[in-house]
Design a protein that fits this description.
By secondary structure, this protein is an alpha+beta fold. It contains 11 helices and 7 strands. The chain has one domain: DD-peptidase/beta-lactamase superfamily (Beta-lactamase), CATH 3.40.710. The protein is globular, with a radius of gyration of 18 Å. The structure holds glutamine.
Length: 305
């Protein structure tokens, strides 16, 4: 059996000895205040084991990682019809790009770009009475932790400065792919991005993607097996924007990053692993998070390939 605790401690200690490059996400003023040197990891396995190292207990803003949950909840409601509103192709563009939308008639290339996630939020507003609460409850449920909360300070900070997201939601509406009021869609998206979790809560939540869509106790089925397979495929191909190919090449796991510095990745049928380190590379992905996971799958030989 793989000695996960020793491996994660070794990699964590080793990376701490090297300088971490990159910058925190200062375009969201509140995230600019986060301690850039934080570094936490949690691994949870589908046989119920948990391993941690570093700042795993500290909460951080999950940001774009929430797009996986937004999509899961819209997908279970709409099934394949959802793909009429948003594609499943890697975009090769930055997360906040407006670039291809006009050419693509307002159909975002994939649900993990900001444009795609805004369309998914619009769908959620149509199918849930209170989508914001539904997302939070689902995270509480699948993580087994009722303490997960929004961070209203982060949400307000981003709402005050989120000019690109304002542009995106208005552009999408003008192209006919938003039905609800733009403010409602914008607010839902940014409230959800502000959800605060620690590495353990995140790793526990994402175990559903390693466990055929259900929690370990079998009490909650977020997705069926076929939907879980597809969610993992989208994470692999689109989870890291214009760095998705690099992540697949270097790490070899489906995963998702956020500009709060979190990355969560999954080995289906085995484990989920969350890493948090706030310094981001130029693609908006955690510098140390990527390095950690690359070393982790190399050391264990455990990846999907
Ligand atoms: N809330 C952030 C934004 O919309 C999320 C981006 C990210 O985490 N990549 O810009």
């Amino acid at each position: 059996m793989t000695d996960y605790q020793t491996i994660i401690e070794q990699i964590h200690n080793d990376l701490l000895k090297h300088k971490s490059y990159g910058e925190v996400a200062a375009y969201i003023p509140e995230l600019a205040m986060v301690d850039a040197e934080k570094f936490g990891v949690c691994l949870s396995t589908i046989d119920g084991q948990i391993y941690h190292v570093g700042d795993w207990q500290e909460h951080f803003s999950i940001q774009s990682i929430v797009k996986v949950m937004l999509l899961s909840m819209a997908y279970t409601k709409l099934g394949g019809q959802l793909w009429q509103r948003v594609g499943v192709e890697p975009s090769g563009t930055p997360f906040n790009s407006l670039g291809t939308l006009e050419h693509d008639n307002g159909i975002p290339r994939n649900p993990f770009s900001n444009a795609g996630a805004l369309v998914v939020c619009d769908v959620l507003l149509d199918v849930y009475d209170d989508p914001k609460q539904a997302i939070l409850e689902m995270f509480r449920d699948i993580s087994g932790d009722p303490g997960i909360e929004f961070d209203p300070v982060v949400a307000a900070s981003e709402k005050a400065t989120g000019y690109r997201n304002v542009a995106l939601v208005n552009f999408l509406r003008s192209l006919g792919n938003i039905n609800n009021h733009v403010e409602q869609v914008f607010n839902l998206y940014l409230d959800c991005c502000s959800i605060s979790m620690n590495s353990e809560q995140l790793a526990r939540s994402f175990l559903v993607y390693a466990n055929n869509g259900k929690t370990l106790d079998g009490q909650t089925q977020l997705l069926n097996s076929s939907q879980t397979k597809r969610m993992n495929a989208i994470m692999l191909t689109c989870g890291f924007y214009d760095e998705a190919g690099d992540f697949a090449y270097q790490v070899g796991l489906p995963g998702k990053s956020g500009v709060g510095g979190g990355i969560v990745a999954v080995l289906p049928k085995h484990f989920s692993i969350a890493v948090w380190s706030p310094r981001l590379n130029e693609k908006g992905n955690s510098y140390r998070g990527l390095k950690f996971l690359e070393r982790f799958t190399s050391a264990t030989g455990e990846s999907i390939f």
